[in-house]
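Ticket #4471: structure output looks truncated?

Reporter: J.K.
Steps to reproduce: submitted the chain below (281 residues) through the standard prediction queue, then opened the result file.
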Amino acid sequence: MTFRLASVSGRATLVDGDALHDLEGCSGGAFGPDPMAAVAGHVRLHEIAAGLAGREPTGALAGAALDAPVPRPTNVFAIGLNYRSHAAEAGMAHDTTPDVPLVFTKFPSCISAPDTDVALESDTVDHEVELVVAIGTGGKDIAEGDAWDHVAGVTIGQDISDRALQFAATPPHFDLAKSRDTYGPIGPVLVSTDAFDDPDDLTLTCDVDGERRQHASTRDMIFPVPALIAYLSSILTLSPGDLIFTGTPAGVGMATGRYLVPGAVITSTIDGVGTITNRCT
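Returned output as attached by the reporter:
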C-alpha cells in the first residue's frame, strides 16, 4: 500500500485523499509526532496506510498548515547539470557525458515549507524545479539495483539560486547561492515510490506567473536516481532523512536572462506528487 506523508504543524501525518490522519494516533502510538522518525520508519508506513480506510480523519488537507515533509535532514545533496536539456542550454556539448555526477550541497537551514515565500536577495534569483529523493534506509556502498529500496519517498523541490552570489567567486559558490533562507521549499508531501508505475519516468513542470518555463521527464537525467544513490553511498554513509535534489531540466532564467521579480509566483508540479506554490518577495 502506498503512503503519502506530510508534516502538519510539525506533526507527522498520513494523507488519504483529502483526509489527514495524525500518525501517532493511527499507528496506535508506534510512532510519535516527529516526521523524521516517520521517514526512518518508512517500511511500516505502508501497513499503517493500508489500515486508514474507515478511520475518522484528524483534519482535511485543504487549508492545512503544511511544513516541509522532511524538515530536518542531516545532509542535503544536490546535483548540477543532470538533465541533458539543461546541460545543453548551459553550453555543455551533446557528446560530452561526465564520468561522475556534479555534486554540491544545500545547507539544511534552507529547507522550508511548500508554500514558503521566497525572499529575493538580488536581481538575478532563479527557479529550478527538481525531483527530491528522501533516503529512508541508510547505508554505504548501495548497489544501483537496490537503490530504490533505500528511498522512503519522493517530493517536489525548488532549488532557488542566487546567480549573483553563485558567480561571485571562482570556482562558483554553488552551495551558498542555493542556501539562502527560503531557498529550499519542498513538499507538499512525501510519496512512497510504489505509487508510480516507473519512478524513473516522472513528469515535472515549473510555471512562473502562469507561463510554462520548464517541462521534462526525469528519464532525461544523465545520472538517474539509482546511479546517484550508488555514487554518493560509495563515498559516505547515507542516513535516513538525507535529501537529494536530483537536478533541473532546461528553462532556467539564467539561460534567457528572465529572473524572478518581487510578486512573481512559482508553481512547481510533479505528476503523482502534487504542486508547490511559492511567491517571491
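Triage note (M.O.): checked the attachment and the full C-alpha cell line is present. Residues 8 and 65 are 6 Å apart (CA to CA).
Status: closed, working as intended.
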